[in-house]
Amino acid sequence: MLAVRGLSKAYGAKQVLDGVDLDLAQGESLVVIGGSGTGKSVLLRCILGLETPDAGSILWQGRPLAGQRAAFMDRFGMLFQNAALFDSLPVWRNVAFRLLRTMPKAQARALAIEKLARVGLRPEVAELYPAELSGGMRKRAGLARAIAADPQVIFFDEPTTGLDPIRAAAINALIRGIVDETGAAAITITHDMSSVRSVADRVALLDRGRVRWQGAVAAMDTAGDAHLRDFVAGGTGR
């Protein structure tokens, strides 16, 4: 569904991405891990078109993404690190933000309430504002927005940041369930190894701007790469 080939990006003398190759199959959950500054967020920003890579290509369903950006933007969902809800809009309008462009208000609101229910939020939450929600509820509302338009690919940027272990586990379970139910492809960026084990089919480790290791999540603990072992164990690998 999505392929990254030889992707490179530098900021002045700092080479952030240095020839990244990745593939994402339909229905697959890929988790990208790595220390701070290894290029995880820049990789995501390049895929989304927020950054222009210096070299390399991104393919969407076998064709250059640059030539079909509008179609891609209609088919992706995004859960931002801090949910990134619009403070001035009630929750249902946040969830239905994209839907309101293409359907009547009543229909969009009904769909928003349906998606909120899918992530465990009751209908009355729809009329609340983001400031009235707990951190876990904001994450759930952000997840409802990410799946509102039934996307083909969903991006999760540090989905459990700022949550306690119980709420983080609940978000991980929701992500895994949504990927399994919808058949959407997913890319998750995280430092949280519990998230990796909960949501990943496959794992890619970025180090110094390159994919140092990738493989099935089940192979992660027995891989021979010392940096990966240290990362999994909570070390720096340096």
Helices, strands, pairings?
Elements: E1 2-11, E2 14-24, E3 29-33, H1 40-48, E4 55-60, E5 63-64, H2 69-73, E6 76-79, H3 91-95, H4 105-118, H5 135-147, E7 153-157, H6 165-182, E8 185-189, H7 193-199, E9 202-207, E10 210-216, H8 226-233
Parallel strand pairs: 3-8, 3-9, 6-7, 7-8
Antiparallel strand pairs: 1-2, 1-4, 4-5, 9-10
Helix pairs in contact: 4-5, 5-6, 6-7
Describe, in plain words, how this protein is organized in 3D.
The structure is a single chain. By secondary structure, this protein is of the alpha/beta class. The chain has one domain (about 25-50, about 70-235): P-loop containing nucleotide triphosphate hydrolases (Rossmann fold), CATH 3.40.50.300. Helix content is about 35%, strand content about 25%. It has 8 helices and 10 strands. It has a 6-stranded mixed sheet with strand order 6-7-8-3-9-10. The chain has a 4-stranded antiparallel sheet with strand order 2-1-4-5, covered by helices on one side. A hairpin with a 2-residue loop joins strand 1 (about 1-10) and strand 2. The radius of gyration is 18 Å and the shape is globular. The mean pLDDT is about 90.
Q: What brief labels describe this structure?
A:
238 residues; alpha/beta; Rossmann fold; six-stranded mixed beta sheet; four-stranded antiparallel beta sheet; 8 helices; 10 strands; globular
